[in-house]
Task: structure prediction
Amino acid sequence: MKILVGVKRVVDYNVRIQVKADGTGVATDGVKMSMNPFDEIAIEEALRLKEAGKAEEVIAVTIGPKAAQEQLRTALAMGADRAIHVETDEEIQPLTGARIFKALADKEAPKLIILGKQAIDDDNSQSAQMLAALSGWPQATFASEIEVEGDVATVTREIDAGLETLSVDLPAVISADLRLNEPRYVKLPDIMKAKRKPIETETIEGLGIEQAAAVKVLKTSAPAARQAGIKVESVDELVAALKEKGLIK
Amino acid sequence: MSKVLIIAEHDGSNLNGSTARAVTCAQGIGAEAVEVAVFAADGNSVAEQAAALTGVTKVLLIENPANAQAVAAILAPQIEAIAKDYSHVLAPSTTFGKDLTPRIAADLGVPQISDIMRVESATVFDRPIYAGNAVTTVEAPAGIIVGTVRTASFSVAANGGSAAIEKREVNAELPTHTRFVKLETSGGGDRPDLQAASKVVSGGRGVGSEENFKVIYGLADKLGAGVGASRAAVDAGFIPNDHQVGQTGKIIAPELYMAFGISGAIQHLAGIKDAGTIVAVNKDPDAPIFEVADFGLVGDLFEVIPELEKALG
Result:
């Protein structure tokens, strides 16, 4: 079977982002960009399924500007077989993104689509669920364990109450949570090899996608900052301070 | 006029407190009706709890054996069958709501507003991005507005209401492609739920081991507090995943948050920004957690906690 995996180019998770003074967004010029960490986990899981003989081909997909090819090259260096770049300079919101993935799924007929559970830039956590809905497929979000046996996947999900297990028929959409796996490090020879792997370029128009009505961003602002606190020198001082606030008796 | 439908989160017998926070959010929309839908196999008790929330105008009870567990693919078509009567469909931004509402939005052909933290008008909302390091003000397009409510941003709607409970039959074809197998809870015992607790004691990598986490549990029990953890502590296997606080874990707003051996990565801080008072104890005087702590104490948690317990009597 084929596995389709989503890859998003985002501001690196170590960067302390700055809100632009004019309220138009977050500064990204000259900022380090990386693959969304949850997408790295998604790629890793697809590769492990392939290595376990459960899948034949892993296809990495991104929607984004020309520079997003860097993240596809990373996915190829990790071991993905080929990549599809849906090139656009527009910011694509989840519902349109899900429509694009649905169109690609109709062409490629994967048995499994794995996406990160959220992108760490907009923190929406919507794409996998929307794609599953549009396809009429099962969804298993926030996965921490995936077992594939024939046409069924058994997925353990990290939910607020603990660990939930779902059994879903394939094809299905799964979203990857933090503890699904630890992504491999990319070695130099793999980076060289990845340069020869194919990246196919598509456009939103070429796929015949009608963009969904979008949420309009009116402004972006810095969050209210917490008042800087004080350092106390001893436990007694801490206890006195908490008592004064009525937080402990 | 607006009419809001809130999807209740519950475990079959108890209404989750996050639902009551979503009700408070809905009050800000200025709706003529705020209705709560309870999907359950046997949901009388949950429906009664929802009906008692101030501000709720009606409770819809949709009973079906298929609703014994909250499976998004099974709930979504039932919600879509009734959504047309409403201007807004909301659920708490817990793993329950996050899993469910995008599926509804996509089927209805509308975008979703995730993690509503402030209601400016019936169509304009604030929501956090970049782990809460920026806030965007967004306007929903025409059509039904589907959203999740960031529970830490809203207080719990008080009891005292007495809304009518209406049993509903919903005609929707339910898929069989998704089957619930089991739920393993970590068995927190009698400790308060992390997301509802007024006090939370939390441990990080500095705690060192699963065995050592006993000191965190011990202090939590003394304070009647819930127990939280950083991602590092969960990844290291010190404590189960459902205790994780942060951007990708639970976002909480207790009156008192005490962090022991937590350095304070921005992803963790995203989960505690709305806490009333933050106390941090860490050996490293330069740990970023001290930048947000109201009271910071540089020291070894294994010395500080016994002293604290003694002082608490």
The mean pLDDT of chain A is 96. The first strand of chain A starts at residue 2 and ends at 6. The two ends of chain A are 62 Å apart (CA to CA).
